[in-house]
Each structure stands twice: as structure tokens, then as C-alpha cells.
Amino acid sequence: MQDLLFYxxxxxxxxxxxxxxxxxxxxxxxxxxLFLAVALVAVSGLFVLLHAFFLGAVQILIYAGAVMVLxxxxxxxxxxxxxxxxxxxKVAAGLASALALALAALISAAALAGGGPADPPALEGxxxxxxxxxxxxxxxPFEIVAVLLVAAMVGxxxxxxxxxx
Amino acid sequence: MTxxxxxxxxxxxxxxxxxxxxxxxxxxxxxxVFISLELMLNAANIALVASARFLNRIGGQxxxxxxxxxxxxxxxxxxxxxxxxxxxxxxxxSNDLDALKF
Amino acid sequence: MQTLFPWLILLLPLAAAALISLxxxxxxDLSARLSIGAIVAGFWLTLLLFALPGAAAQAYETRxxxxxxxxxxxxxxxxxxxxxxxxxLVVTAVxxxxxxxxxxxxxxxxxxxxxxxxxxLFTFAMLGVVFAPNFVQMFFFWELVGVSSYLLIGFWFExxxxxxxGLKAFLVNRVGDLGFLLGILLVWSRxxxxxxxxxxxxxxxxxxxxxxxxxxxxxxIFCGALGKSAQFPLHIWLxxxxxxxxxVSALIHAATMVAAGVYMLARVFFxxxxxxxxxxxxxxxxxxxxxxxxxIIGLFTALMAGLIALQQDDIKRVLAYSTLSQLGYMVMAIGxxxxxxxMFHLATHAGFKALxxxxxxxxxxxxxxxxxxxxxxxxxRAMPLTFWTFLIATLALCAVPPLGGFYSKESILAHAWHQxxxxxxxxxxxxxxxxxxxxxxxxxxxxxxxxxxxxxQPHEPSHIATWPMLFLAGLTVLAGGADVEGFxxxxxxxxxxxxxxxxxxxxxxPFVMLAGLAATGLGFAMAWGLYRGAYxxxxxxxxxxxxxxxxxxxxxxxxxxxWIGGSFEALACLASGVDRWIIAGAAVRGVHGSVELTGRxxxxxxxxKVSTYAxxxxxxxxxxxxxxxx
Lengths: 165, 102, 630
Description:
The structure holds 3 protein chains of 3 kinds.
Chain A: H1 2-21, H2 29-49, H3 53-78, H4 90-114, H5 127-135, H6 139-159
Helix pairs in contact in A: 1-2, 2-3
Chain B: H1 6-26, H2 30-55, H3 59-88
Chain C: H1 4-24, H2 28-51, E1 60-69, E2 72-80, H3 82-105, H4 112-131, H5 135-153, H6 160-191, H7 196-205, H8 214-228, H9 237-240, H10 246-253, H11 258-267, H12 269-272, H13 290-309, H14 315-335, H15 339-366, H16 379-382, H17 384-397, H18 404-419, H19 421-446, H20 463-478, H21 484-489, H22 498-502, H23 504-508, H24 510-531, H25 539-542, H26 544-551, H27 556-605, H28 610-629
Antiparallel strand pairs in C: 1-2
Helix pairs in contact in C: 1-2, 1-4, 2-3, 2-4, 3-4, 3-10, 3-15, 3-20, 4-5, 5-6, 6-8, 8-11, 10-15, 11-14, 11-15, 13-14, 13-19, 14-15, 14-18, 14-19, 15-17, 15-18, 15-20, 17-19, 17-20, 18-19, 19-24
């Protein structure tokens, strides 16, 4: 059952991801953003399959929620017209595809060469365990993240001023 | 059919990552480039969470937590930059932004 | 006394040159007096050395250590023997007369003091060659002669021709000097010494000491004389050296410079006469010894210069080719194995050739620097003193008894007759040529009627200039009485009576003497027939090809310019090509170009497009990954 769910989520993530990156039917950024949201939800499902429940929730809340809203806001704000069909760049497309394929093959080769771990999957990533680790062993990264978020917030506010232009 | 294990997740992660890279390299619309970047980050997240699960290390999840925070910050700043840029030159085509070229 | 005097003779001109250039340059008279005083004092000291009892009898040396390197010990010294004393007498006597004459000739010159400083330096250098006891010192002064001749020939360096002539003399002499230097090194490497006396002793002990290099060494040393004494093929500088002031020409042609070559040959005659032997590589030359080659070159130079002299119109150039011809006789005498007659002829020639040049200088001065003989004419009445002294010198040059030139030339011809009839026949032809070109000169310049603007009224130079001429004329007349050959051979002076010496040629070789006189008579008759009262040269009309070839100096100068100049030009082109295409092109521009090309290629990578950079980044990651999991 769980294996079947993995394949379903994986397929959804890949197809939605492909449509987000290169939608053959529409070149509207809005469609891309929505397909990205679908892919993010699928990834969140994968997190749950991996017993990372808290992260799954966060993925939905922050990515599919906050980040996607931000994307949609900006797209609407800029009021982009549909991108014109540009002339096909066959050489560039070929080169980029070759690179992507090579990279995927290399990473997969590395992953498969390692083989599965001897231990059975044991980690339970609930909110309790994560929170405990977060406030003990990983306190410094956590605080740095806090600082980073503040800095990002200040930066965004400054960038968005009218006078900045 | 073998039960789904770490390699499956890693291969899926690799495929998603390559897909994102393809978008970053090929697409010229900066918004799409951003979307592709998010896809790449999520691919990495899958690999991290799967590793944490199968190798029994909580650190992987902590890393994902940080990545999500960084991604949120990055998207916020990046999109703000994009908006600011759009006020200067009404385009989101990366090809049109080559003022740094000599 | 015996050691002090030679040092004084040598160093007085140097002191004069130094004093003039350092202190007395603004004082023209004082400078001239210093220079003249130095050489006249040298003359009297040389005479005193002759008069000192036994001074001339024994060869002796005075020396101070100069430099020692390894086994080579070189002294700076003076060798006083009959040869050097005779030569010193010639240099100081003739040179002194020319110094005094210069005082008049150069009167209006702006750089009067500089001129006398150079003159003294020249005298010093020549005396250094004369007294040198070893090859290194001789070469040192030899080069000093070259430098000072450069200064004097190019004295009027404002005139391009004079500057070029000085340069030409210097460069042509370099060619000869290179051979001389190689010869010295060869002799030193074979015999382990550069000292003349030591070398002569070692060669006497072991005649084969030079081994296979004997002839080569002799010929290389002869190269030095080839340059300095202006023998074919290095003769081309001498006629051009006429661009210098006339007293300088007199000095170069009579007492110094060209005499140095012949003197050097006489000094190292024992080396030239060493057993002929060629190295294996030059085996095909076996049977030809150094003296034979020297003889041939001397004879050829004598004939060639005599021919060219026939068609020269510049009074000084006629004399220049005449000098070349007479030097050819001297070198030929050396080649006949007779340094004695060569030195005798050198001494008498120094006197009468200096006299000829001084006379020419007087004429040139009187005619306001006109040198073309066809614009002179009829000077016999206007300048009687010059005419008579010039005539005496001409007669001496043409070997008319009882003048000095007669005895020296007859001596050479007699030896030629005894050794090689062919050489004698050709030398006899040279005598005819000598008489022909000299009487042509005298008849055209002094005879006939004036061929010049009416307003020019030539007159004799002042006494300061005429006294040296009279002095040299006296020497020329009296030189026949001097038994130079006997003196050099080491015989006691005055053994043979004056009368028997004067009649010597008639007694020893009557045929040669008569033939010589006949040659002079023939030459004179031809000159009389061709040039008496002539207004222009009749030869070009009769034999135009020959005459034009002679006028262009047998095309030798043009030929040299074409081949040597051409080959240097080709070499220069090659060097320029290497510089332009290989050094500047490949090395410099190549580096610059490849850097720029690389830069341009790298620039293409900077597209300014984010996707390109992302692609490159991806490629980098892929490569890194491949390297990690490989």
C-alpha cells in the first residue's frame, strides 16, 4: 500500500514538475505556478510516507501556502501578458537536456551504487522529536535561520519601497 | 518488485532535480526560473528526508527545516527584486538583462 | 743616455699631444710650437743616438714589465737596433719637416691646435710601432696609428667625403688588422712568445718550430701590412685618404702609416722566411711559400697602381697611386727576401714623396684649393722654387742618378733580376709607368701655359713652408750617398768609399742599371710626346675603354661597393627579416596575439545571460560528480 502510494506521489510530482517547468499547452506563468503547487503537495505526501509528519505539514503550510501565494501575487502584480512563442532553440535545448540527463544518471548511479542500508527504516520524525532536536543539538542553525528571516524581511521591505526605483 | 527504499527516493530526487535544472537553463522567464529553482530545492529536500528516515538521523529533517526557511526568504527577496526590476525595465526576460556584459 | 734618449724620442710627442689637448688649446702658436718642438727634439736625439759611439752597433732593449698572464709575460719596452733607429730617423726627419710645413698650410684653420695634437699623437703612435720589441706592443701602437689616421684623414669632418674617407681607412685597416691579430695569436700559440728577439732565437734553434702553420702564420701577419701599407686588395682606402689636409697626406704616405706595414715586414722578416709548410687542409698550395705570395701581391699592386695613376686628374690622387705603386715595390722586395733594399727604398721614398706632397700642397694653397691638374699649367714661372723641388723629387721617384731613389730602386731591380727574370720584366714595366705618370704630372702642372682664371696670381708659400721643402730636397739629393743596406746588414759605416757606392749599380749590375735608365727615358719620352703643351688628356680619345676603366680605378671600388656592400645589405635584410618576422612577429606579437585571442575566446563565454551561467554551473557540478563517483 505504502509502496503504491510512493509511486503515485512520485508520478504526480514528476508530471506536475514537468508541466511547471515546460508546459507544452500554455506558456502562462500562472499555470506553471499552479502546477508547482501540485508538485509541492505531492512532495508533502512523500514526506508523510517517510514519517516526517511535521515537515509534511510545514511543506503544505509554507510552500503550498505562503510561497505560492507570494508567487501568485507577484505574477498578478506584474500583470504579465502571455509570453510570445519564441523561436525554438534546438541546440540550447539539446545541450540542456543532455546535461540534465547526465546529471540525473550520475546521481542515480551514485544512489544505486550505495545500495540500501542494512537497518530497517526506524526514524519517526514527529513534531516532538524534531522540536527536541531543534532546540538542543541544532539550536545554532535554528537561530541563524531566525536572523536570516528577519534580514530577508527587512530587505524585502526596503526593496519594495517606491523610492527605491 | 523490490520494496521502496532509499534508492527509489534518491532516483526520484535526481529526476526532479534535473527537471528543475532544465527549467533554470532553458526558460527565460525569470518567474519560471524561480519556479524551477523551487522544484530543485524540493528535490533536495526529498533526498534529505529519505536519508534521515533510512539512515536513522534526525539531522536530515533539521536540514530540510532550514532549507524551507531559506527558500521562503529567497522567494521573498527574489520576487521583491523582480518587482523592483520590473519597475526599472518592464521585462522579466533574463535575456534582456545583460547590462553587466562587457 | 742610451736608454733615456729612446724614451724621450717616444714620449715627447705624446706629452705634446696631451699638453695641447688639455691646456694649450686656445693658444694656437704655443700648441704648434709644442708639437713641432717635440718632433724636432726627437730628430736631434735620434741623430745623437747615431753619433753616440757604439750606439748603433749593438741592438739593445730597455723595458719595464707591463702585464703577465699565466705563462705570458709582456714587457713595455723599446728595442733599439739599426732597423728601428733608421726608421725613427725617417719618421722624425720627414715628420718634423711636415710638422713645420703644417704651421703654414693650416694657418687659417679653426681647429689649429687640435690638428697639431692629432699630428703629435700620430707621430707618437708611429714611433711606438718603430720601437716596439714585441708583437703585443706593436699591435697596440699599430691600432693607435689607425685611430690617429682616422682622426687626421677625417679632420675636415664637416665634409662628408672626408668623414667617409676616414671611416673607409679605418674599416679597411680593420680587415687587415684582424689577420694580423690572428697571426700574432698563431705565432704565440706555436712558439710561446711574442717577443721579437726571443722568437728569432727560437726559430733559429728549431726552424720547424712553427710546424704546419709556418706559411699561414707568415701570411696572416702579412695581412696587417696588406691593410696598413695599402696593398691589393686592401689598397682602396689610400686614394680616398687624400680627403685629409695635404700635410696629413704627406705624413701618411711618407713617414708613417703606410711605412708601418713595410717596416713591420722587415722587422718580422725571419717569420716570413721560415720554412714553408702548409697545414694538411691546404695541401694543394704546397710549393707556394709566403714570400712568393708577398712578391706577387707587391708586383701586382705596383703595376695596377701605376696604371691607374696614368688617368687621375687630381694632383693628390696621382701621388696617392704613385705611393701605392712604390709600396708595391717595397713589398715585392720583401717578397724577394731582401728587407734591406725594401727599407732603403722606404727611406728614400719617404723623403721624396713627402717633398712631392708638400709641393702639391704649395700649389693647392697657391691656387686656392684647386686640385685638378688640367686647371693648373704654367706654374714653372710663378712658383720656381716649388717647381725645382718638385722636379728633384720626381727625378728621384723615376730613379734618375745620382738621387736617392735611383739607388734604392736599382737595388730592388737588381735583386729581381738575379732571382726571377719575369718579375724583373714586370717591375721594369712599372718603372716605365712611373716615369710616364710622373712626367705627365710635371708637364701638365708646371709646363705649358696657365689654364685658369686670369685674376688668380699664384705665388710661392712663405718661408716657413719652403724651408721644409728645401730640407727634404736636400735629403733626397744626399740619400743616394747613404749606405742603408750596408748599415742594416750590420757592416761598419764608411767601409766602402763614397765613390764606390755611388758607382755601385754600374759595377754590380750594369745591365739592370741601363735598363732602368732606359725605362725612365722611355717613360719621359712618352710623356713628352703626349702631354707637352696638352690642354686635355689625349688618352681617353685614343683608348677610350682603357682610359675610362683607369679613371674609374679599374672599377675596383665600385666592385667592392657592389659585392661587399651588397652582401652586407643582404645580411642586413636577413637580420631585419629575422627581427621583423621571427622576433617581433612570432615571439612578441605571437605572445601578444595568443593572449588577445584567448581573451577574445574567453569573452564569448561571458554572454550576460543567466541561463549560460547556469548551464556552465551544471556542467561543473556534473564533472565534479563524475570525478567523485568514478
